Amino acid sequence: MLIFLFILLAVGGAAEWWTLKHGLDEVIYSLESSKQVVDPLEKFEITTTLQNRKRMPISFVRVKELMPKELIFENEDKLNIHRDLEHTQLTSSLYLGGRRSSRRSLQVSLPERGRYFFTGCTLYGGDFIGVSQDVRYVSRNTEVAVCPRPCKSLELQEVLGGFLGDISVRRFILEDPVLTVGFREYTGREPFRAISWTQSARGRGLMVKQYDYTAEPSVTVVLNVEYRGDLTREMAEKVEKCYRIARSVCETLEEKGVRYDFITNATTEGVLGRWHTLEEGIGQRHLRTVLEGLARAGYGRIMTFDRLIARCMRRSDTGRGRIIITPSMLPGYQKSIDRLTALHGGCLRVITAEELSEEESV
Q1: Closest C-alpha among 248, 218, 244, 240 to residue 157
Q2: Which has the closest alpha carbon to 223: 260, 276, 282?
Q3: Domain containing residue 230: CATH number
Q4: Is 48 within 8 Å of 65 (Cβ atoms)?
Q5: What is the pTM of this model?
Q6: Phi and psi, residue 275, nearest 5°
Q7: Buried-exposed string 119-157: b where 16+ CB fall within 10 A, e elsewhere
Q8: Phi, psi (5° rounding) for residue 51?
Q9: Bridging pattern class, strands 44-52 and 259-264
Q10: Do residues 136 and 240 share a domain?
Q11: Which domain holds residue 198?
Q12: 268-288 pLDDT, tens per residue?
């Protein structure tokens, strides 16, 4: 009897020692999001998986997951949630059999533009007799980016309606320097660069190229986030408003079938790369690239407004429309805009966040 009791104690002690040292070995935690880029309050799914890869079961595992503090759960009242200043902590407990896994999916959403991170979890593994526990932190870095919501402003709709109307009219007035349909005599009113020296050398006098009308309207969207002084709460709100305006402008151009390119001096964070210049295009993929950039954009700038406008001047398309979005009109901005207009002409609109009223349309 004593021998049997001794053996039982020895086995229990060995099991206790093993679970304290190796209870959470080969326990794998992972988290996946069904979407990486979402709209504000758009529902998406997060799936967490806890896998025990060893043969021995784990009698008790408590998982404390660290999620964004702003995260909204579909059935929050049924979950064990604690919120602090930095995170939402979601706690759950379970039994995990040998070579088994537990998977859970939750419907969630996020309220505002920005980047949000699911940073991992802390695992607590119970010992063999339920007295002590093994603790291990698992680091993860799953990111979800939230796009800015549209700027639903009646004033913005009116500005864009008038601008696109001007673009439509000017396409039948301005000549396209790509579509040459013939030659005519030089009258003295044409720009010097329009003279065709090949045709003039044939003895017919100075001849200029005759162009076809503009075949397709196109627009450059310029997003400026430059400001002076410190980043105050008021200024941050103006920059956020610029992002909402930029989204609505690009969505309107998509709806009207107008091709557009995009240029900005806003900093971006994450894996997007050189987002500050997006070549001309149209379609959902093109728009989605703009929206993802707006989701990841910060409050800093990579260049001044003057340099931003200088980049616009490199596009020499005659009659190209330009929409400039800026928090406010700072001293010196108008000179840069005037140089752009004098060089290329075309329709140009400046939309400032501080002057645009953002009332919900009906």
Answers
A1: 248
A2: 276
A3: 3.40.50
A4: yes
A5: 0.80
A6: -80, -15
A7: bbbbbbbbbbeeeebbeeebebebbbbbbbbbbebeebe
A8: -120, 130
A9: unpaired
A10: no
A11: 177-213
A12: 887 655 678 898 999 999 999
Picking from 245, 247, 243, the residue whose alpha carbon sits closest to that of residue 225 is 243
Q: What is the pLDDT of residue 11?
A: 44
Q: Which residue has the higher pLDDT, 266 or 346?
A: 266
* pLDDT at residue 165, as a whole number: 82
Lowest mean pLDDT among 31-35, 82-86, 355-359: 355-359
CATH classification at residue 142: 2.60.40.10
Question: Six-digit token pair at 251?
Answer: 């969505």
pLDDT at 361: 42
Q: What single-letter amino acid sits at 317?
A: D
207 plus 238 within the same structural domain: no
Q: How many CB atoms within 10 Å of residue 351?
A: 22
Residue with tokens 């790369």: 273
The DSSP H or E segment spanning 219 is strand 218-223
Distance (Å, whole) CA 225 – CA 239? 6
Q: What's the confidence (pLDDT) of residue 272?
A: 59
CA separation for the pair 278, 288 (Å, rounded)? 12
Within 10 angstroms of residue 309's Cβ, the number of other Cβ atoms is 21
Q: What is the pLDDT of residues 44-103, one digit of tens each?
A: 999 999 999 988 888 788 999 999 999 999 989 999 999 998 899 999 988 888 889 999
In angstroms, the CA 228 to CA 301 distance is 11
User: Number of folded domains in the chain?
Assistant: 3
On whether both 123 and 184 belong to a single domain, the answer is: no
Residue 197 lies in a domain: yes
How far apart, in whole angstroms, are the C-alpha atoms of residue 341 and residue 337?
A: 6
246 and 135 assigned to the same domain: no
Burial zone of 49 (CB within 10 Å; 0-12 exposed, 13-18 middle, 19+ buried): middle
Task: Tell me, yes or no, whether 277 and 310 share the same domain.
Answer: yes
